[in-house]
Design brief:
Blueprint lengths: L3 E6 L5 H10 L12 E3 L5 E6 L4 H7 L4 E5 H7 L3 E6 L5 E8 L14 E4 L2 H10 L5 E4 L15 E6 L3 H5 L2 E10 L1 E6 L4 H22 E9 L3 H7 L7 E4 L5 E9 L3 H10 L3 E7 L6
Parallel strand pairs: 1-3, 1-4, 7-8, 7-9
Antiparallel strand pairs: 2-3, 4-11, 5-11, 6-9, 6-10, 12-14, 12-15, 13-14
The protein binds phosphoribosyl ATP and zinc ion.
Zinc ion (ZN) binds next to loops.
C-alpha cells in the first residue's frame, strides 16, 4: 500500500508543534527522535525530518508529497507548491525595525537605507511595490545585531514576542506580513496520495478546529436568554436546559478562542453567572 510522505522540520521552532499535531491526529510513530525517516504504525504516512529551508524544494520536486513550514519561507522561496491550509501555530510577523533612539514618521524613512534581512525576496518586493529604493543586505542569521555592528542601518526580521528587538536596542516600525505554520503540498500528487491526504486533512481539521474553539457553560436568568443566545451562536445553536432553580437556565455552546474575552464580557453584562470554559478534545463539523 502506498504512503503519503510528509517533511517536517528536524529541530527548531516548528518541530515540536508539528509532531504534536500528528500525535493529536492519532498518528503513531515508533522511536521518533533517532531517525531522519520514520513510518507511522497506524496510518499510511512516512515522515522525513529536514531543515525547514529545504522543505519547499523537496515538496516541489515530489521527493515528499507534503510538508509543514512557515508561510514566510513559502513566500520567500516562491516554489511551485500548494498551500493547503494554515495550521494555527508558529505565529509571527516579518517586520521592519530601526534603532530605538531614531525618529520615525513613515516608510519613506527607508529611502536609500541599508536593510539587513534573511528574507531578501519578500523585502525587495515590498519596497518595489511601494516605489521606495532601499539596499538589501542578505544575512542568514543574527539579523538583529546588524545595525549595532555597522552592517546595515535597519533590519527586517521575524518577530513574535518582540523581546529580541528590545534586547538589541531596536524598535518595530512596520509590519510587512504575518505568518504561521502551513501545510504545503506538491502540485501533482498521485491519486493514491491525494486520497490519503484527504483523510489526513479531515483529522487536521478536527484538531485545529478544537484548538481554535472552547466549550462554554453558564447559568442565565430566563429573561436574558434571548440576548445570551444571540451572543453565543454555537455550532448550530446553543443548548438550553432548565436549572432546578426556577427562572434560570443552563446554556452550553462553543465559542472561538480569539473572540472569547469579548464574549465573556458581553455575557456578564446580560447577567450570566457561573461561566465555565472547557477545552475541546476534537471537533468534527
Ligand atoms: O535549522 P533550520 O533551518 O531548520 O531552522 P531555522 O533556524 O531556519 O528556523 P527556526 O526554527 O528558527 O524557525 C522556523 C520557523 O518558525 C520560521 O520560519 C517562522 O515561520 C517560525 N517562527 C515563529 C519564528 C519565530 N516565530 C521567531 N520568533 N522564526 C524565528 N523567530 C526568531 C526571529 O528570527 C528572531 O531572531 O526569533 C527571534 C524573535 O523572537 P521574539 O520572540 O524575541 O520576538
Ligand atoms: Zn532554516
Amino acid at each position: 500500500m502506498s504512503k503519503l510522505k510528509i517533511a517536517i522540520q528536524k529541530s527548531g521552532r516548528l518541530s515540536e508543534k508539528s509532531l504534536e499535531l500528528l500525535k493529536e491526529c492519532g498518528i503513531k510513530f515508533p522511536d521518533f527522535k533517532s531517525k531522519l525517516k520514520n513510518s507511522a504504525t497506524n496510518f499510511p504516512l512516512e515522515i522525513l525530518f529536514l531543515r525547514d529551508d529545504d522543505i519547499p524544494k523537496y515538496v516541489e520536486q515530489g521527493i515528499v508529497d507534503i510538508g509543514i513550514i512557515g508561510e514566510n519561507e513559502v513566500l520567500e522561496q516562491d516554489k511551485n507548491v500548494i498551500v493547503v491550509r494554515k495550521l494555527g501555530f508558529a505565529n509571527c510577523r516579518l517586520s521592519l525595525a530601526i534603532p530605538k533612539e531614531t525618529d520615525y514618521s513613515n516608510l519613506s524613512f527607508f529611502k536609500g537605507k541599508k536593510i539587513a534581512t534573511s528574507y531578501p525576496t519578500i523585502v525587495r518586493n515590498y519596497f518595489e511595490n511601494k516605489n521606495i529604493f532601499a539596499e538589501i543586505v542578505e544575512i542568514s542569521g543574527s539579523v538583529e545585531i546588524a545595525p549595532s555592528i555597522g552592517l546595515a542601518d535597519t533590519i527586517a526580521d521575524l518577530v513574535s514576542s518582540g523581546s529580541t528587538l528590545l534586547h538589541n536596542g531596536l524598535k518595530e516600525v512596520e509590519e510587512i506580513l504575518r505568518s504561521e505554520a502551513v501545510l504545503i503540498s506538491n502540485e501533482n500528487l498521485p491519486a493514491e496520495s491525494e486520497i490519503i491526504l484527504e483523510s489526513f486533512l479531515f483529522r487536521i481539521q478536527a484538531v485545529v478546529n478544537s484548538r481554535e474553539n472552547k466549550y462554554i457553560l453558564l447559568n442565565a436568568p430566563n429573561e436574558s436568554l434571548d440576548q445570551i443566545i444571540n451572543i453565543l451562536p454555537g455550532m448550530k445553536s446553543p443548548t438550553v436546559l432548565p436549572l432546578a432553580e426556577s427562572g434560570w437556565s443552563s446554556v452550553h455552546s462553543v465559542v472561538r478562542e480569539n473572540e472569547f474575552w469579548r464574549i465573556i464580557d458581553e455575557l456578564k453584562k446580560c447577567g450570566a453567572e457561573g461561566i465555565l470554559v472547557i477545552p475541546i478534545e476534537k471537533m468534527v463539523l
